[in-house]
Amino acid sequence: MTKISIAIPAYNAEACLRETVESALAQTCLAHEILVIDDGSKDGTEEVARSFGNRIRYIKQQNQGIAGARNTAVQEATGDWIAFLDHDDLILPDKLEKQLAVIEANPNLIVVYSAFSYLYSDGTTRLVPAFPARNLWPALRYRTPILPSTSIIRRSALQEIGGFKKLYCIDDWNLWFRLVRRYSPSAFQELPESLTLYRWWENNESKNFMPMAEAVLGMLDTLLLEGLTGVRRKIWKRRIEARIYYGLALNLREIHNERYWEFAIESFLKWPFCGTMITPYRYVVFAHMLWTRMRTFRFNFRYWWPTRRCRENLTLSV
Fold first, then answer.
1. b/e string for 197-209 if b means 16 or more Cβ within 10 A?
2. Which partner from 55, 112, 154, 171 sits 20 to 30 angstroms from 186, CA to CA?
3. Which residues are bridge partners to 61 per DSSP?
């Protein structure tokens, strides 16, 4: 029988780890094992984990970041497949059952993932549909459409490509890219059902958009343009940069940071056109930004045409 290990990387997870582990234990198709990798927590994470006794395997290590915790799980797991589950996410009782049926019917798969739902603090949810596996390439050049907690991954494939790389908030994106390049999108399969609840906290690490952008720009320099040459490489680079800077402009405007205008202009200069990568709605957003600045009109050249040093002061802390 196919053996699935559930791997839960945990850091200062006392507040929500119990509910996460309970969702793993409540599967209609029981996991081969459940591993909790305590990545150097300083709160009561260990006490919560140990309260489950021998129903889980508890492993504590010095802090290595989430990529390091996930890699420890890959090394320690004894299952054929690994279902990653972040310490503040929840999985529905039939997640493993439905994913197991898919992988046993399709022996060439290496990743199976599903739709998920945001779970907000007031208890409401919002469905996020599963991204079609057939469209993963070339979409992975400019976005990461798979939430790790929705996935199960063949352990041998993880070992073959060297596991996760230590990158701020985008270690999963880097992994999906390398797996698709190694095995092709046909080795991935999505499930349309929402089988995971993704908790949305005000302080979610994924909302630290400045260091995330720095990490993505770094991956753009080293990985995302792999296989491209000449004019195609230059075009792809400008399009991806335009998407990154557009996202930064939106986030900075939301927190009333004046640098939003710098990034908005740079986004247009990098790639003024719209399409799959950047939707036409960007024109509406830019028009609104321009109107807002006209309402506070200033006779100042730099107010309208700021010095653009878009890759500076994007503090990266891993």
1. bbbbeeeeeeebb
2. 171
3. 39
Please give the structure tokens belonging to residue 113. 């993932």
Q: Tell me the whole-structure pTM to 2 decimals.
A: 0.92
Enumerate residues 6+ apart whose C-beta is below 8 A from 112.
99, 102, 103, 151, 152, 188, 189, 190, 191
Q: Tokens for 40, please give them.
A: 């150097």
pLDDT in tens, 39-87: 999 999 999 999 999 999 999 999 999 999 999 999 999 999 999 999 9
Q: Which residue has the tokens 């997870």?
A: 13
User: What are the backbone angles phi and psi of residue 252, rounded to the nearest 5°?
Assistant: -70, -35
DSSP characters for 84-105?
Answer: E--TT-EE-TTHHHHHHHHHHH
Are 271 and 246 contacting, i.e. CB atoms less than 8 angstroms apart?
Answer: no
Token code pair at residue 38: 């305590």
